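Hello K.,

You asked for the raw outputs rather than the summary table, so here they are, unedited. I folded two proteins back to back in the same session to keep the settings identical. This is the first:
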Amino acid sequence: MDERAIISKLEGIIQPVVEKLGLELYDLEYKREGQGWVVRVFINSKDGVTIDDCVKVSRQLNLLLDVEDIIPYSYNLEVSSPGLTRTLKKTGHYEKSIGAKVKVKLREPLKNMKTFVAVIKSVEGTKIFFQTDDDIVETDFSNIESAKLQLD
């Protein structure tokens, strides 16, 4: 089973557990790091994420992932908040962050810019609109290499 298939199966197992605890599955990573594999679960809540939230999710997932046994290697499970300067990876992340300042790196430059800091103005389908100091930049989600929230 390839990494994408494992991530898809993990998401199907993890999301209901996280939602049952009143939280949101913000992101999920499964990758090789150093000598082993890591499953990183990022949880979110409109009220913020506490250490207790992370512990509850971790305890439930440890048992469930052992029973499901879909990961072919030994791994470490990490559960945390995505943080204040979180990475935006899905169009839904942009929709929830309208009005926030973000640092964006594009695959192909627009208006002679490949990297810029702007405020997310709107999301229309796969189009993301950003307000820079002096202009509105529109790009397709697929042209965004990375984007990360910025603190003022």
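The second followed immediately with the same parameters:
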Amino acid sequence: MSSTENPIISKMSTMGHEQVLFCNDPLTGLKAIIAIHNTTLGPALGGTRMWSYSNEMEALNDVLRLSKGMTYKNSISGLNLGGGKAVIIGDSRSMKSEALFRRFGKFVESLAGNYITAEDVGISPSDMQWVNMETNYVAGLPGKSGDPSPVTAYGVYMGMKACAKVQFGSDSLAGKTIAVQGVGHVGEYLVKHLSAEQAKVIITDIHEETLLRVSKQYNAKVVAPDEIYDVPMDIYAPCAMGATINDDTLQRLSCSIIAGAANNQLFDEKKHGLEVMKRGIIYAPDYTINAGGVINCFTELEGLSSEWAHVKAGEIYTTILNIIQRSKEENLPSYQIANQIAEERIEAVGIVKINKC
């Protein structure tokens, strides 16, 4: 990189981003970043995450990775949407206010529909109502498609069953030991599905109150956050922050399937995606298995029914099966197969749009 090159623009170029908007408002305490990765398929849709990042560069790296993942997620799900994401830097348990979210809504509105937001980690549908006071480019609102978490969890559950079908010869999860890392909105709904199928569920979370409540309700075993990687398990379900598949954890995990709701589960996609395959572990590509949430938001944008969303999320089972089968046939990591499928659709639709012009 030359001395005159901007490191942020250089990183955007490397990852293929179209636009990054930095948002700052001292009066409300808002510090946010909105990243639009690709709008070939349609306006960029992706949730807003509120998190206590250690610094602005950590937040930028997260939003760039997340927004790119949304492009691939929307593409592989067959939705006419591009990929975007937003992060608000701050503690979601102490810094939320109507003023902060309304100011964020004004920034979303300034993008004139190029980005549509929704809830993500640290954000609730009621927070989105405040954002909606300043912009109509919001999905997942109460009274409409609502909380996307149940649909996300259902898609993860179905994708997990597809992995089990290949790895164990049956898609039944009864009696399987499943370690769920994170029992927030999506994780708790996933535990509900697993418990109903009589799986043996082990859970962890950084919020002790939530952890104890979920444990009591679904009779799940509780372990400390760092211990989740060491418990004997058949399936590891990361449902919290990303990058939990890394050099350290791969030495500790005893699972033969990784299937969870978290985004960017592989710390280094190329390195750890290949390592997972070499170890004989079936990995369900994150943006494919956790696509239920964006499917739920799409119903709101297109005026489709909740039944449609449920059926569409159920199709994740077949999508994951196809990815695993191609991975085995072509001897390529599953993430690479998923990327190819997503990129092929973006390229094909891009050609159609060019020809229309």
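The chain has a mean pLDDT of 94.

Happy to rerun anything if the numbers look odd on your end.

Regards,
P.
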